[in-house]
Design a protein that fits this description.
The structure holds two protein chains of two kinds. Chain A has helices at 5-23, 35-48, 67-80, 90-94, 99-123, 188-198, 262-271, 289-295, and strands spanning 27-30, 56-60, 84-87, 127-129, 146-149, 177-180, 209-216, 219-222, 237-242, 255-256. Chain A has eight helices and ten strands. In chain A, the strands form two sheets. A six-stranded mixed sheet of chain A has the order 3-2-1-4-6-5, with helices on both faces. Chain A is 35% helix and 15% strand. The model of chain A has no long low-confidence stretch (mean pLDDT 89). In chain A, strand 7 (209-216) and strand 8 (219-222) form a beta hairpin. By secondary structure, chain B is of the alpha/beta class. Chain B has four domains: 12-221, Rossmann fold (3-Layer(aba) Sandwich), CATH 3.40.50; 234-316, Beta Barrel (Elongation Factor Tu (Ef-tu), domain 3), CATH 2.40.30.10; 320-427, Elongation Factor Tu (Ef-tu), domain 3, CATH 2.40.30.10; 440-619, Rossmann fold (3-Layer(aba) Sandwich). Chain B has 16 helices and 28 strands. In chain B, the strands form five sheets. In chain B, strands 7, 8, 9, 11, 12, 13, 15 and 16 form an eight-stranded antiparallel sheet that branches. In chain B, strand 22 and strand 23 (415-424) form a beta hairpin. In chain B, helix 10 crosses helix 16 (606-619) and helix 12 (502-521) packs parallel to helix 13 (535-543). The termini of chain B are far apart. Classes of the chains: A alpha/beta, B alpha/beta. The interface between A and B is large, with 66 and 80 residues. The structure holds guanosine-5'-triphosphate and magnesium ion. Magnesium ion is lined by residues 28-29, 67, 82, 101 of chain B.
């Protein structure tokens, strides 16, 4: 008797999640509200059923997330009886940092990377789960499942601990920490297929609907609230759109699509020719930009 | 598109884990780039990004350099080599592939081993223009050692040799000779060009003389399933699932066999038995479950089980021992020294232990066994290991989950080695200690003193012996029974067979530590005066003693001062190169981070320093 591919991935991820709960003093699960987070959370719930998951969730809120994301987050937490910490970089808020005024790079650095580090330090988490997958980007393809961070949360790609079999080295020194990626070996298709088969709830923004958008820098940006100033020559149009990935709304490009169910999304995905991270402004600032961000402590 | 059919097809696909390996620049990353490209797993924006990077870093002129699809780190693009493993994913009609691209460069061999530890199939690339190289031999050995039993020998860059059959035949011939040393279950040879795509996904028209399958059909055809379903059920306990209510379950991933409700299991550590009441799988409650599934099992009665235990339906299949023999791959630039303490990570526990005997290491060219005193980065060896307490295991060949371990440095927590268990050695519980009815406590009452070890460490010429001597005189005047172990009285007798290499230094200190332990046991206040430059050995010595019995005294003299004093003229000799491996000059001194006593010799004379130690002993009720 052998498992099919998805069942193997599922058991592998559950093993990883349990290992972290067993070996670390104060783990946390980073919950970004996206589809990968939803899958990761679903697996964590399975790993510890019938009990509650033995750690908290952390959402680093940049204050620029889509409204529907926040609504979905609060609903998920309530329905599953989970413990959530929401962290916002107050200093950034005081200085009115945002993606439109400060650009994607500064905004992401202050409201996401710095903010995440603040939260990890504040609560003294020694292990943090993230929903990143290796097929997303080629520096991620190089990262271990247990990714070590020094006291400044930095990743040193040239000095990763060898990771043999499933014998993860969970030993760290004081103030060091580990990021753990239970979905490392899942692909985008795997994630969607699993969402479909397991009937996992996801933010409605993944499904096509008529939404107000403007065209900016070759991307379709949704007008989620009135903080998005409409420039001369831009006009708001109602378009049938959806998102392949979710982040801060002014930085996340929508795709025109008719896919309004998971089935249709999968079909669209199988026929598409662009990778999902293409919708993200922050990856393409420069060659190797994801690697550099990761070294700074971004996921 | 019919989605139902798509899912049925998806779910029936076989998962294959493969890796590429071989010498540097043989075309491993290029091949994976080619596989991704031809299986249409690359999106158009990724291709345009790679084209852009190819112009900057590529090796193929204006053409796209497929290796850059894979070499995802900045340093890799700049140096044009792979440094760390990349995991990539693609699928065909029949299979889902998880493929690890590993570095060919010798310095990064450990990353190749990392990739091999989780693979079913190995693709050994050989550059047809270069033939079999050292790394080809090394990687083939590691594949065999790690139990990657199916291999494809991809003779690459045939395009550079006009697709000539003779070259291919020669390489096949040489590899056949080489592989006589191993027992691969299957072995295929394919001539190809990763760059152009010949015989990767489609059959090459340029090599009509090659009648066999393409790489991809060959991979798809391997039968890799080694189901353990007929074996006994075993599951290491990973997590105890306990709630405030009445539920108590044991979580883990089944390492072999099948379990049904009502089966009787035994806890290996205690021998206690119970019946399975419920099996909770990722799909909910089930009647049964089998290997590789992550489950939670509840039992019909309360018994004591915790993480670190294993449950099984057949006790005889699980070995328990604190000594075993194993193959090792050393993965760190700090040498492995026998008798040094390390942390051993097994499937669900960490146990302290050491390598007691280095039986031999393997010459990677001739595969000969050669004698060794220590292991360097990337060495492969066979050795005996002793743990501080017993663990359960199977041999690696039987089960690689239960037969493998990694070795962790106890100070910096780095992963320094990996091992595969061969078989258990005599259990140490058989060597029972003589029951000593007169014990340390009784002896020390008679002596009216608390025995302890005063461990002086510091550079040569720092003043260890001088201070220790004065201290011993003072203790003697106080009617205390003492003994002084000094480099001079030990090196000339007990340890006269030892030199000054790192390995010998470790053994030197081990013997001294053991002797001082016996002396302390005999009730003496033992003064030990040795340079003892390495943290690990001082730690090893400390671990031999009861708490508060071991007192580390760091004689803190700057090296400039020691060199100025140079009472035996040793620094001069070391500086002129006559004396090798001299601490502080061409051998390290690791400064103690937390000694019980620190003596600053620049500030006080030896008399005053000895009094400082005396005060410490009084304050701590030792004298
Ligand atoms: N002509 C020709 N060149 C090839 C072929 N395969 C790879 N190359 C070239 O060989 C060089 C090395 O290729 P890589 O794929 O980086 O080699 P590698 O084995 O991954 O190297 P390391 O990972 O550093 O060990 C590059 O310039 C490739 O373009 C081939 O089939 N034919
Ligand atoms: Mg390479």
């Amino acid at each position: 008797m052998t498992f099919n591919h998805l069942k193997k991935l599922e058991s592998e991820s559950i093993y990883i999640i349990r290992e972290v709960a067993a070996e670390f003093t104060n783990p946390v699960m980073l919950y970004s509200i996206g589809k990968d987070s939803s899958v990761m959370l679903h697996l964590a719930i399975k790993a510890f059923a019938p009990n509650k998951i033995p750690f908290k969730l952390l959402h680093v809120d940049t204050t620029w997330k889509f409204k529907e994301m926040i609504k979905f987050r609060d609903q998920t937490i309530k329905e599953n009886n989970l413990d959530l910490i929401v962290h916002i970089n107050q200093e950034g808020v005081n200085n009115k940092v945002g993606p439109i005024t400060h650009g994607s790079k500064t905004h992401t650095d202050i409201m996401k990377t710095q903010s995440l580090k603040q939260a990890l330090n504040k609560y003294k988490f020694d292990a943090a789960f993230g929903g990143a997958r290796r097929d997303e980007e080629k520096s991620r393809a190089k990262e271990r499942i247990f990714s070590f961070r020094d006291t400044n949360h930095r990743w040193d790609p040239k000095n990763q601990k060898p990771e043999l079999w499933n014998l993860f080295n969970t030993k760290i020194s004081t103030n060091e920490s580990v990021r753990i990626f239970p979905l490392s070996n899942w692909t985008e298709v795997d994630v969607w297929q699993y969402i479909y088969q397991e009937n996992i709830a996801i933010v409605p923004l993944y499904f096509a609907a008529k939404r107000p958008v403007i065209k900016r820098d070759d991307m379709l940006i949704m007008v989620d609230d009135n903080r998005l100033e409409i420039k001369k020559g831009e006009k708001i149009e109602e378009k049938l759109i959806r998102f392949r990935t979710l982040g801060c709304y002014p930085l996340t490009g929508a795709v025109e699509s008719k896919a309004s169910s998971i089935e249709e999304i999968i079909i669209e995905l199988l026929e598409s020719k662009h990778s999902e991270r293409q919708g993200r402004l922050i990856d393409s600032d420069q060659i190797g930009s994801m690697e550099i961000k990761k070294q700074d402590g971004y996921f | 598109m019919d989605l139902k059919k798509f899912f049925i097809n998806q779910n029936s696909k076989k998962q294959l884990k493969i890796l590429t390996c071989g010498s540097v620049d043989d075309g491993k990353s290029t091949l994976i780039g080619r596989l991704l490209f031809d299986s249409k797993s690359i999106y158009s924006d990724q291709i345009s990004q790679t084209k852009f990077e190819s112009e900057k870093y590529g090796t193929q002129g204006k053409e796209i350099d497929l290796a850059l699809l894979i070499d995802g780190l900045q340093a890799e693009r700049e140096q044009g080599i792979t440094i760390d493993v990349a995991y990539r994913y693609f699928e065909t009609e029949k299979c889902k592939f998880i493929i690890a691209d590993t570095p060919g460069h010798q310095e990064y061999t450990r990353n190749m081993a990392t990739g091999a530890s989780n693979s079913d199939i190995g693709i050994v690339l050989i550059d047809a223009t270069k033939g079999i190289l050292d790394q080809t031999r090394r990687h083939t050995f590691i594949l065999s050692l790690l139990g990657v039993n199916h291999i494809v020998i991809a003779v690459n860059k045939m395009d550079l040799l006009n697709y000539d059959k003779k070259n291919f035949d020669n390489i096949v011939h040489s590899f056949e000779k080489l592989s006589k040393n191993f027992n691969f279950l299957s072995k295929r040879y394919i001539p190809m060009s990763a760059l152009i795509g010949d015989n990767v996904f489609s059959k090459s028209k340029k090599m009509p003389w090659y009648a066999d399958e393409t790489l991809i059909s060959t991979l798809e055809s391997f039968d890799i399933d080694k189901s353990s379903i007929g074996e006994e059920f075993s599951m290491p306990i990973q997590w105890v699932n306990r709630s405030s209510s009445d539920f108590r379950g044991y979580s883990g991933t089944i390492s072999s066999g099948k379990i049904n409700i009502n089966d009787e299991i035994t806890v290996v550590s205690s021998g206690e038995r119970a019946k399975v009441r419920k099996i909770l799988t990722p799909d909910g409650n089930a009647e049964f479950s089998f290997e590789n599934q992550a489950v939670t099992i509840s039992l019909d009665k309360e018994i004591d089980i915790s993480r670190g235990d294993i449950i099984t339906t057949d006790l005889d299949k699980i070995k328990i021992a604190d000594q075993f023999s194993a193959h090792l791959i050393w993965m760190h630039k700090d040498n492995m020294l026998p008798e040094r303490n390390y942390i051993f990570r097994f499937i669900n526990s960490y146990i302290n232990g050491k390598i007691t005997n280095l039986e031999y290491k393997i010459n990677i060219n001739s595969y000969e066994k050669i004698a060794a005193k220590s292991l360097e980065l990337n060495d492969i060896a066979y050795c005996k290991i002793a743990l501080s307490k017993p663990t359960f295991f199977k041999s690696y060949i039987q089960n690689n989950q239960l037969g493998s371990f990694v070795i962790i440095d106890q100070f910096n927590n780095l992963t320094v080695g990996a091992g595969m268990i061969d078989f258990e050695l005599r259990r140490s519980s058989n060597i029972s200690w003589h029951d000593m009815t007169i014990d340390k406590k009784k002896r020390s009452t008679l002596n009216s003193q608390k025995p302890c070890a005063l461990w002086f460490t510091g550079l040569s010429g720092s003043g260890k012996s001088t201070i220790a001597n004065i201290l011993e005189q003072k203790l003697h005047q106080l009617n205390k029974r003492t003994y002084l172990l000094d480099g001079d009285n030990i090196r000339h007798g007990l340890n006269k067979d030892l030199g000054f290499t790192d390995a010998d230094r470790v053994e030197n200190i081990r013997r001294v530590a053991e002797v001082s332990k016996l002396m302390t046991d005999a009730g003496l206040i033992t003064l030990i005066s040795f340079i003892s430059p390495f943290k690990s050995e001082r730690r090893m010595a400390r671990d031999l003693f009861d708490t508060n019995e071991f007192i580390e005294i760091f004689v803190d003299t700057p090296i400039e001062e020691c060199e100025k004093r140079d009472p035996k003229g040793l620094y001069k000799k070391a500086r002129s190169g006559i004396l090798k491996n001299f601490t502080g000059i061409d051998s390290d001194y690791e400064v103690p981070s937390d000694p019980e006593i620190k003596l600053k010799t620049l500030l006080k004379n030896p008399e005053e320093l000895a009094d400082e130690v005396l005060d410490f002993l009084k304050v701590n009720n030792i004298i």
